[in-house]
Amino acid sequence: MSDAMTTNLFDLTGKVAIVTGASRGLGQYFARALAGAGADLLITSRQLSSLSIFQSELVTSGCRAVPLELDVTEYGSIENMASAAFDAFGKIDILVNNAGCNIRKPALDITWEEWNTVLDTNLRGPFFVAQAVARHMIPQQSGRIINIGSVTSVAGYAGLGPYCASRGGIKQLTMSLADDWGRHGVTVNCLAPGWFKTKQNEVLYEDPEWVEYLVDRIPLKRPGEPHDLDGALLFLASDASQYVTGQTLLVDGGISTGATRATRK
Asked: Among 7, 82, 182, 249, which is least packed by CB within 10 angstroms?
């Protein structure tokens, strides 16, 4: 295969992508990567005002970008967002189901309400966002849905009970939706980052001893940088992955291998 053909596989020119949770963190990096590959963007947040600076950045870079309000814990908000997204460009080619939250507490301290907050945001919300968007993808017989999971989709960590449950659920949900919608040309995959510094967990990285502990367990010996996700994201969003569906792609520096030394240093 020629270099030109290989490059074209990842070209998103003319494609329209939704990125949920794009007011900060990895959501913005995902949007930048898609825009850099040629896609037009619909970026969402619970508050439109939080998107204004980022929208200007995308537009300045040459991308058409439309901000939309979305609260993934509210069904009506999801339906309104999907309709507005379709009306804005007349189609939806890619969904990056990124909006999420976390509550770090020992399992004995988690409240009923905290459990619901995390599961409603990280699992129920992404299902109904995917459902609403798939209703527009299925008639066009094509689409790429990328659910954002985590290394906790395949591994459990103390103090992250609801979060691990939600991310494990996303992995299973991805497989179910892939089977449901594959006949319509819609692929559904899960992109699962490992340990990346984000707004949700940045306080952890202020502890040098914890960072040393973490890095020791990552085979590549460093936490992830946002650009480490670009290739995997574009693969799942583009024609390069047209025969890939129902999969969880871990981008974690290898920590999911187990990363426990069998010998002394």
From this structure: 7
**By C-alpha distance, which of 61, 76, 58 is closest to 19?**
58
Asked if 18 and 42 touch (Cβ cutoff 8 Å), the reply is yes
| Dist. CA 39–CA 14, nearest whole Å | 6
Residue type, 180: D
Helix (H, G, I), strand (E, B) or coil at 87: helix
The domain ranges of the chain are: 3-250
Catalytic residue positions? 163
The token pair that represents 189 in the structure block? 């995959």
What are the pLDDT digits (tens) for 30-62?
A: 999 999 999 999 999 999 999 999 999 999 999
3-250 in CATH: which number? 3.40.50.720
User: What number of CA atoms fall less than 13 Å from residue 265's CA on the CB side?
Assistant: 2
Does this model's pTM top 0.70? My answer is yes
Q: What is the CA radius of gyration of the chain?
A: 18
First CA to last CA distance, the chain: 44
